[in-house]
């Protein structure tokens, strides 16, 4: 009997974290969220915010499940605390 070991090439499932546009959250607040929770510099944060503003949705980053879930919770809690309707969601890649 021959026992073969499968090559270990399993990749973790990855999830996109997305921001959704709305009419009320200030642009500057969204830029701040991207800097604070997604480690973007001001230029990248502004680019992503404007993409969401014009297209309705945009990607903030790609993470493993637990990290993505943490980011979504942090953004939603932060937005709620500041009484902005900003929505953040995750989707499987
Ligand atoms: N549309 C908002 C405004 O005009 C800005 C905005 C951008 C809100 C991105 C949410 O995810 C968002 N103030």
Automatic annotation (TrEMBL):
Residues 10-88 form the Adaptor protein ClpS core domain. InterPro entries: ClpS (IPR022935), ClpS_core (IPR003769), Ribosomal_bL12_C/ClpS-like (IPR014719). Keywords: Hydrolase, Protease. One of its GO terms (molecular function) is peptidase activity. One of its GO terms (biological process) is proteolysis. The keyword GTP-binding does not apply. The keyword Hydrolase applies. Pfam families: ClpS (PF02617). It comes from the Bacteria. Involved in the modulation of the specificity of the ClpAP-mediated ATP-dependent protein degradation. NCBIfam families: PRK00033.1-2, PRK00033.1-5. Binds to the N-terminal domain of the chaperone ClpA. Belongs to the ClpS family. This is ATP-dependent Clp protease adapter protein ClpS. It comes from Rhodoplanes roseus.
